[in-house]
């Protein structure tokens, strides 16, 4: 009992911090005595601080992993996998919150509730990563999605933002309905909602001949629901529109945080819950389709945010190949891919936010960035080359390990397709670099310098990207431990 | 035989909810109704299976799902209201200012 609250103290802290921030914001921003101050930066810094303290509580709670394995009626479970995934999630959230402050000042965005919703969804993502039961998984996914619907539509006067919000709501509600339908089918066929029970029931599922159609449909629907949420290709209907229409910090959040938590959850369900074999076909197909679409569709894009949206769809397709092999190496490559993807995406969106001051919306606006702001151009090129998979950078290591794991489990069609689409995809990344370095735009745009938080963030992430190659073994050993504890 | 009958019924409702979302072109706030009917059909699915399996977990799940559905429809209505305020029309087919 005592262990229960100690084990969940990071979540308790962030829940309390969310409520206290909300009350603080409401009380002070409607008080006449202080002349109705806009509290968004204040609440923003406090929100960032609360996320960092949660990270500290989580990281310092490592000894708790040995005494508090499960809590709340075995609905959640904490082990090494959830520990490091939650640390990664909190680090990316802290990074994206620190990108937002300049955005608030420029856009005169006064709603502090934007900041309050972010720790709320972070807490639900923390639960999602450690969820071990269908009920817990569904509730956490829904809570995270609900918070994101609101912040995607948060610029109320803008047509783009409200359209993105309503499209995201419809898409998300639809996919949650499908996911829940799958949970109900599995519950009806097996009577089990907990993943332990599911693992025992589905032990001989692939090997024996008798396949219950209810279980198969249930697992299929759960997989389809997850694939909608992670914007996999046959189900990516409105994802580029949502990414383009939302305010840029929200796009950054959408690209990073749900991908981390939903990948962690889906690997729990499919690897632990059903031994990875059932869903392999559909995940393979979705990975191949995502890689092909991400490479081809991004070539025709002229807007920067849409290009980043398609490139993130493609990159998550690569990462999903690691999931679709059911091996430990596959999960390890998934985790390495997610880590490097999170850092690269934080980098890319920090640059887009920095350039946003001068209304850079189209790719053609990036012309001659190298002459006016050479360091930013070099950083952007490093990030784009890392996405493309050019050798001494981190993106190459993650793609290499992903294809290595795919070949190791026998996916001899997937790896060449991946390599070919990676080469095709390099075209538009290198075209960005060419625009920056070698093109002269018709109207020269003056670039203003970025603020301190973004420059710190860019420095940290781009130095990680460049220096990952000589010494990758800390990340490799951490992810190996995570993958092992997932299988146990 | 018994759970299959009820299960077929709720599956029909769920599929008509999916059809409602995909084939709606006229009316944005009407979009929230098929979403609710999908969640309702799945809820009744849980209850039917819980009774036929004599297990309590389905009923506790069925308590939590309408909570989420209510919160989601509140947020949906809020977002549809601000969409209407910005746009002035409620037709879904005009939801296309983001091209590509």
TrEMBL record, chain A:
Topological relation to the membrane, as annotated: Multi-pass membrane protein
GO molecular function: NADH dehydrogenase (ubiquinone) activity
GO terms classed as biological process: ATP synthesis coupled electron transport
Principal localisation: membrane
Any one of the GO CC terms: chloroplast thylakoid membrane
Membrane-spanning residues: 12-31, 43-69, 81-104, 135-154, 166-187, 207-228, 282-300, 334-355, 375-394, 400-429, 455-472
Catalytic activity as recorded in UniProt: a plastoquinone + NADH + (n+1) H(+)(in) = a plastoquinol + NAD(+) + n H(+)(out); a plastoquinone + NADPH + (n+1) H(+)(in) = a plastoquinol + NADP(+) + n H(+)(out)
InterPro entries linked to this entry: NADH-Q_OxRdtase_suN/2, ND/Mrp_TM
Subcellular location: Membrane; Plastid, Chloroplast thylakoid membrane
Record's keyword terms, sorted: Membrane, Mitochondrion, NAD, Plastid, Translocase, Transmembrane, Transmembrane helix, Transport
Designated name of the protein: NADH dehydrogenase subunit 2
Native organism: Damnacanthus indicus var. indicus
TrEMBL record, chain B:
Any single biological process term in GO: ATP synthesis coupled electron transport
Positions of transmembrane segments: 6-23, 35-53, 59-84
Matching InterPro entries: NADH_UbQ_OxRdtase_chain4L/K, NUOK/Mnh_C1-like
Pfam families xref list: Oxidored_q2
Cellular localization per UniProt: Membrane
Keyword Ion transport among UniProt keywords: no
GO MF annotations, alphabetized: oxidoreductase activity, acting on NAD(P)H
GO cellular component: NADH dehydrogenase complex; plastid
Record keywords, A-Z: Chloroplast, Membrane, Mitochondrion, NAD, Plastid, Thylakoid, Translocase, Transmembrane, Transmembrane helix, Transport
Chief location category: membrane
Topology of the protein relative to the lipid bilayer: Multi-pass membrane protein
Superkingdom: Eukaryota
NCBIfam families: PRK05715.1-2 (NF004320), PRK05715.1-3 (NF004321), PRK05715.1-5 (NF004323)
Family: Belongs to the complex I subunit 4L family.
Protein name from the UniProt record: NADH-ubiquinone oxidoreductase chain 4L
